[in-house]
Amino acid sequence: MSDLPKLITRLENAVCKLEGLSNRTGAAAAGGADAQNNTNQIQIDEMHPVVVAYKEILNGPFAHFLQLSQQIGSEVGTQIELVKDAFNMQIAIVSLAPQCKAPEQTELVELFKPLADKVQEIQNFREKNRPSKFINHLSTISESIPALFWVSVSPTPGPYVKEMIDAGQFYSNRVLMEYKDKDKTHVDWVKTWIQTLTEVQQYIKQHHTTGLSWNPRGGSISGASVLKASPSVGKVPPPPPGPPPPPPSMAELNTLAQPASNTHAALFQQINQGEEVTKGLRKVTSDMMTHKNPSLRFQSATPYKSPAPGAFRPVPGPESFKTVKPPKFELQGKKWIIEHQNGNQNLIINDTQMNQAVYVFSCTDCLIQVKGKVNSITIDNCKKTSVTFENLVSSVEFINCQRIKAQALGKIPTISIDKTDGIEIYLGKDSLDVEVVTSKSSEMNILVPKADGDFAEFPVPEQFKTTWNGKGLVTTVIEQA
């Protein structure tokens, strides 16, 4: 009995050692499970060269561009906040590429959808603010912001970005012309935006020459945070679905299969009749043959019967679902606004001043007359519309129009035509020194007055030939026969 306390002490020590060994084994197993789970998660490497190079663009010219946009303010500042969100979405996509393998097509659509929605929101903002005095700024961004879709372009994302820069150049040049002698902030604003997109193009050439570079050994993008929203806190998950219904019994299967087998057997029985299979066919006599009786060719086998009233109703087309907006003709500040007019041949602006502008939008089959002298006239998205004007301080512009006629009765410095098909411009004696700037347009004709009071028609060139002369490119007009 004297050894009993020692024996109990030894047993307690052994139990403590066993408990410690058990705890270490459980911790190691749990650590192995955590490591296994971590291998299935996407770890974003913020210091990856691809990510760092793109952030240099965001922290360099793009950051300067944001500062200038805030200085301009108004609608420009609001639109640029949307642009900032779009670039943040793109850096998230660029950061995933080095860590993930190329996704499936359905995953790509889901990945790029937020970016596509944001770009559409930027373009819609321009459409909602067309009367703004910063419409050229808004259009510069709206036309070139699709450059962010380079992440979905293959195999030439770099040239695609260059195309988008050129798409916005028409409006950026107008900003430069308007503010080059007024406010340097707007000039720098244009330059920093073009610099941002140009550096994005250079970045693509260096890191994503043929498309967004994915990691073949990377993880699946399906677990990325940009694809899945965080679960709501405090909500009880829905109950699991119930078990599937039991399979049908053999008796039910036999019952279902029985009619089909009978049908097949009857079909093969008819086919296997041999010559008897044609016994029930009617014989075509010579008096029924159209090649022997030509008069039968002009007879209708089944006379036409008009459908009963109400039996057919045509499905309304997309035109019937268009929202008809109320027409507008008013002076807003220093700008005359004419919008959504249809068939109005008596739109006359009489009380004009040199510092006023005229903006015409979405008019069809109208006649507009501008009396006196105004600063500028813009005709946007109009069809079958005619406009006459006397004197202008700066220019008249035609954008996204079809079948337009214009007549200058006085002095006019510049005519700008963009994305317009079918336009005739009648010049007066005082406007023969006008400069005509065209872009992406067709069927353009300039009519010049002759001594007898008639007009001579001259087409504006649409086709050009470019050659290399050893030092640079030389472009000449292709003469039309």
> Into which percentage range does the β-strand content fall?
15-25%
Sum up the overall morphology in one term. Answer: flat
Largest sheet: 12 strands, mixed
Whole-angstrom Rg: 37 Å
Order of helices and strands: HHHHHHHHHEEEEEEEEEEEEEE
| Average pLDDT number | 78
Q: Give the terminus-to-terminus CA distance.
A: 128 Å
Q: What is the fold's blueprint, element by element?
A:
Layout: H1 4-39, H2 49-59, H3 61-72, H4 74-96, H5 105-128, H6 135-144, H7 157-179, H8 184-207, H9 250-271, E1 328-332, E2 335-339, E3 347-349, E4 357-361, E5 367-380, E6 383-399, E7 402-408, E8 414-418, E9 421-426, E10 435-439, E11 442-449, E12 455-459, E13 464-468, E14 473-477
Parallel strand pairs: 2-4, 3-5, 4-5, 5-6, 6-7, 6-8, 7-9, 8-10, 9-11
Antiparallel strand pairs: 1-2, 11-12, 13-14
Please tell me about this protein's structure.
The protein has 481 residues and is of the alpha/beta class. The protein is built from 9 helices and 14 strands. The strands form 2 sheets. Strands 1, 2, 3, 4, 5, 6, 7, 8, 9, 10, 11 and 12 form a 12-stranded mixed β-sheet that branches. A two-stranded antiparallel ribbon has the order 13-14. Strand 11 (442-449) and strand 12 form a beta hairpin. Helix 6 runs antiparallel to helix 7.
